[in-house]
Amino acid sequence: MYERLVRDGQQPKALIIACADSRVSPEHITQAGPGELFVCRNAGNIVPPFAEMNGGVSSAIEYAVVALGVRDIVVCGHSDCGAMKGLMQPGALTDMPNVATWLRHSHAAERIVCEAYPDDIDPKDRLRALALENVVVQLAHLRTHPSVAAALARGRLSLHGWFFEIETGTLHAYDGRRFVALTDDGALPVAEVSVPRRAAPDAGAPVAAE
Q1: Could you tell me the CATH number of the domain that includes residue 145?
Q2: 81 marked ligand binding residue
Q3: Which residues contact 59 (CB under 8 A, 6 or more apart)?
Q4: Would you say 160 is a known binding-site residue?
Q5: Which residues bind Zn(2+) (predicted)?
Q6: Residue 120 within any structural domain of the chain
Q7: Does 21 show up as a binding residue in the annotation?
């Protein structure tokens, strides 16, 4: 098998951006074999918005889309996420300044939960809501990357938001409005379908002679 992987090269079906949590393995969740997934893991399954400063996540996205030609990108969050707990309790990050700085990319999700959800929501439900909203925020960040934006416009890429419930093994997918639990006989919801589009539909059309 490994000889074939070297001979034929890698041809992953998707890029999965997941949390570094040791309990969450994209390959195990999807039952994928070697060479089938291009995986990028970090604390909080975060996608920094595109910027001139180079970073590992941004480089992985660009390579997956441009060099490997993946047709799907998945941002996968999960229950009982330590990074999301850190957002809820910033005092716990006093001795982890790098983690605190990294989590600034999830501040929009924290703001959403603080202002759009009830004040008296149960702490466990608040943590779950924060993890779900964080996936949606990171999907928005994905669209700022030039390689992703171009592939979406060309109809060659679809974006997915997943949430893995560790305690039940249930996988939820974002349909563009809410997360729904996946079933064996149900279709896989897509956060953003790959549809070719042009904001300037007349661009490139022949110009009539005067």
Answers
A1: 3.40.1050.10
A2: yes
A3: none
A4: no
A5: 19, 21, 78, 81
A6: yes
A7: yes
